[in-house]
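Researcher: Good morning. I'm working through a list of sequences from a screen, and I'd like to move beyond sequence-only analysis. For each chain I'm collecting a predicted structure so we can compare shapes side by side. This is the next one on the list. No need for commentary yet; just the structure.
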Amino acid sequence: MDKNFIFHQLFEKETSTYTYLLGDQKTKEAVLIDPVVEMVDRDLKLIEDLGLKLKYVLDTHVHADHITASGEIRKRTNAKVGLSSAYDMACPDLHLEDGQEIQFGNYTIKVIHTPGHTSGCLSYSIGGMVFTGDALLIRGCGRTDFQEGSSERLFQSVRDKLFSLADETIVYPGHDYKGFTKSSIGLEKKLNPRLKLENSKEQFCEIMNNLKLSYPKKIQEAVPANLLCGLPFKSEILNTGFVDGIPTVTAEDVYTKLGHVKVIDVRGSDEYNNELGHIQNAELSTLGPKLDKRLDGEDKNNEVVFVCRSGKRSGEATRMALNKGFEKVYNLQGGMLRWNELHFPIERDMGGS
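Model: Good morning. Structure tokens for this chain:
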């Protein structure tokens, strides 16, 4: 890159996350890639010290090990947030596509869709550098066992897209746990034990299927927060928690708050009045097109609890609502099975939509 290109690699030690600041010395426009919420003040102080104006905050993917600072930084700077369109989320300003170009000052970032670690992973290429997030790490890669991950897709993403870049392209990963700061495409082709060119797809998949990793420590709070660009809502009415990355409430708590929160039952109409019955004043909107249409007309400021038989479908409904930009939505843990187990009152009259 030329002398006017500004580049800083920043590190957050708890999750070993790299954040990257790119800027144009002439125009003072800048881009921040993968910021961490705990490091907002550090990052913004550096931007201020350098006299830069932040134009974009880009995430490589919906992170599971830390909460992104993208939403908080947008609040403070008015920078636009960019994330893959594959997630179908409401909070980003830019829903990025493969091959799209992002301009700041006299420089251009090219978006490369590299799914596999998650369904919406992106890499960002600029001037002989590529920021790979978790798709390609130094001598490794991101796991593929949650968030719609796929070993087959990750293999193809790296081999077909990242490894098609020039060998001298510098690789800047989303994390490193051994003290490395960068690599190159050529080195990873030769030395990456999982993805080197001599390995077949079958060998790679076998390696990934036998990792047996524990889940990231912060996954329960990070994923739902990051579906809202890092800005989770804390209910003032309900006592909330997270199960499998989804905001969740207990039947006991909902029972004591009936009348103060909206309850939407996402089962079919036949289940709504079966032996399990439904919660008093619960509105019926079956998971699928009916619920999708309902949410498009729902006030996003409402606090909503979704319920089904056991909690699985209502969990899907909660995630659907989060992706549409709702901040105050929760899954009823255990569903109507738990509600009946506690002998809370039920109804069986028809209603809803």
